Amino acid sequence: MKTGFYPGCSMKGSAREYSESLMAVAAALGRELPEIPDWNCCGATAAHNLDRDLALALPARILAAAERDGMDEVLVPCAACYSRLSVTRHELLEDEALRRKISELIEAEYKGTARVLNILEWLAAVPDLESRVKAPFARKVACYYGCLLVRPAGIVNFDRPEEPQSMDRLMQRIGAEPLDWAFKTECCGAGFSVSRTDLVARLSSLILDDAVARGAEAIIVACPMCHLNLDLRRPNIEKHAGKKYGIPVLYITQALGLALGIDAKKLGLQRHKVSPSALLVPASAKTAAGPQSASGDAPAEAGAKVPAERTV
Amino acid sequence: MRSDRHAHPASGKLADRVLEKTGVDVARCYQCGKCSAGCPLAADMDLPPSQIMHLLQFREFPEFAEMALRSHTIWLCLTCEICYCRCPMELDIPKVMDALRHEALMQGKVNPKARDIIAFHRAFLDSVRYTGRLYEMGQVVDYKLRSGHFLQDLLQAPGMFLAGKLHLLPERIRGRRLLGRIFARTAAKAKENRP
Question: Is residue A95 within 8 angstroms of chain B, CB to CB?
Answer without folding.
Answer: no
